[in-house]
């Protein structure tokens, strides 16, 4: 058996994304925008920002392109990832600028809070369509572009934004997020299946599982769960998530540093999920 080589080649470029092309769905705000910022600052040449609202995409790109020291640029591509037509439109628009994509961050997502007995079918369907079906469609439709430059030494990357709600019990009770929790569990397992399917095509698929981050999506849930200070005090790290926390994990998975990570689901919650034992979010009812 060959001796294990302990040498780390070209360490300074281990976390570099120089020249890479990335697509971020749901990239106009929140976690997606933080991730897009990291990709650009790590050297990506193009980062396509997509969400349903054109004005939001354009505003995000204006912010990103004003970042100091970047050599690449953010490009606005409004599209609705919840529909196949929307995903195909996104792929077609990206293809006008590049023949290949190196990183896809499937980040677009939605949630809905309502008690079990009155939980609307339409709301459940909307969440599942975007959070699961939409993610599958994005990965499938971008697969040919992801394969263009992919190799054993430098695979292309798919990163799915899941949630700790998909690993444990999400919010139940009067603001139950049943569809959201189910969708995130489903998309994590989808990611594991696609990691095995696409690995031989030199594409890795991993999921990130954020806990509480003070974004627009989580604002209402934070308030009904006791507010930011109470949630932070219950966390082993005594704080909520911040942009650097998402940026660091996304950069790790997208760069050479994460080239041999495939099928993983990485919690980004300061250990809160494990400290609770029963895997329930703070302030939530067990009834």
Automatic annotation (TrEMBL):
A molecular-function term among this protein's GO annotations: oxidoreductase activity
Alphabetically ordered keywords of this record: NADP, Oxidoreductase
Claim: NADP is one of the keywords in the record: yes
InterPro entries xref list: NAD(P)-bd_dom_sf, Sc_DH/Rdtase_CS, SDR_fam, Sec_Metab_Biosynth_SDR
Domain of life: Eukaryota
Pfam families, per the entry: adh_short_C2
Coiled-coil stretches: none
Gene3D superfamilies: NAD(P)-binding Rossmann-like Domain
Database matches in PROSITE patterns: ADH_SHORT (PS00061)
Keyword check for NADP: yes
Family assignment from sequence similarity: Belongs to the short-chain dehydrogenases/reductases (SDR) family.
Protein name as annotated: Uncharacterized protein
